[in-house]
Design a protein that fits this description.
Two copies of one chain form a homodimer. By secondary structure, chain A is mainly α. Chain A is built from nine helices and no strands. Chain A folds into two domains: 53 residues, Arc Repressor Mutant, subunit A; 128 residues, Tetracycline Repressor, domain 2, CATH 1.10.357.10. Chains A and B meet through helix 8 and helix 9 of A and helix 8 and helix 9 of B. The first copy, chain A, binds a DNA duplex through helix 3.
Chain lengths: 192, 192
Amino acid sequence: MSIQARRERERAERERAIVAAARDLAESEGWDAVTTRRLAAEIEYSQPVLYSHFKGKDAIMAAVAVEGCGEMAAELAAARAAAPDPRQAVAGIATAYAAFAERRPALYDAIFRLPVALSFASQEAPVELARAFAELAETLRPFAGGDDLETFTETFWSGLHGLVTLMRDGRLRRAEHERRLALLVDRFAPLG
Amino acid sequence: MSIQARRERERAERERAIVAAARDLAESEGWDAVTTRRLAAEIEYSQPVLYSHFKGKDAIMAAVAVEGCGEMAAELAAARAAAPDPRQAVAGIATAYAAFAERRPALYDAIFRLPVALSFASQEAPVELARAFAELAETLRPFAGGDDLETFTETFWSGLHGLVTLMRDGRLRRAEHERRLALLVDRFAPLG
DNA sequence: ATAGATTGACTAGCGGTGCTAGAGTTGCGG
DNA sequence: CCGCAACTCTAGCACCGCTAGTCAATCTAT
């Protein structure tokens, strides 16, 4: 029994290594640099080994995305918890969201720009993603007014997503980033 | 002289055909289906001919994007012109924006999600793109209040962009699309 | 203990990608 | 009429995601 256990342990470890290698490579050189061959070289196994762990490259990216979801949710939660009042909570979580997207662009892309990987509303979405969304929703709750909270949150979240993606692609003036964020926050969580 | 003129005419026509083929293929089968080989087959020339017109595949996509910018600007302008009052103008242009993104997803992607193609703020950006942005800005002007109009517009535009991209990727509930649009409009162009 | 079965990682290869070097044809200017 | 320049072609490079089939190592059962 112990031998099988060791095997499973080694296998799990290798799977962890694959995801970690994919993530590191993506963060340091971008997703284009993440090829199955390079990944295989990184973990010091042959290419087909990857396919005994994941259905394909997309599945590996999805695994990285799931990992990233957890971190993002944690950072959003921390930002919310640190805020002294509801309005500053919105500002804080917006800043945290943008900071995450900027600091971990590859991770952010895996989560939100991946061709088809994670569906937000479906049950295949990891609980961490739901947690991140819930953090946003709870932060916004005091400001939803008569609007449905989920719809309200989706709209605010879309604003954040648009801001970070367009800016990273060089389609928005970087210098105005904070002002745009503040403006968005002000529209969804106005003073008084 | 007439022979050279004819050659140039044919060459220009062929270039037009390349862009048209790329656009048609992208709209009917998605950008993944747009390969240099299929493009070459479509225009009934060999592959390397493409490279005598464009530096690479990215340049072809950029050309498609420029074409799309013009149409988008026109549709936004029409939506603005058709509106009876400033607030309905914002609602109308938002709807037109979302409709364009939905009706021409490949074109929209070429314009706004292309790796690096068009920089909004740089001079390489086509005038049509600036026109589209200006339509948005003029529509929003009555509501910018004390905020800088360009920053205000960028933020609203990001909201639209986030809504249409996240929804198309299946990360937002489709049924709530119009409600989210209305909510966004209401935040940037409130009643009274 | 050994023969057979099973697991699992490997080499090699398929069909595809964007792109390019060099050959070969075509038409112009001296 | 001939040499030259322009231009399109075939062929091929290096890479991609992915898979079939070989082969060694391990486990099972006699």
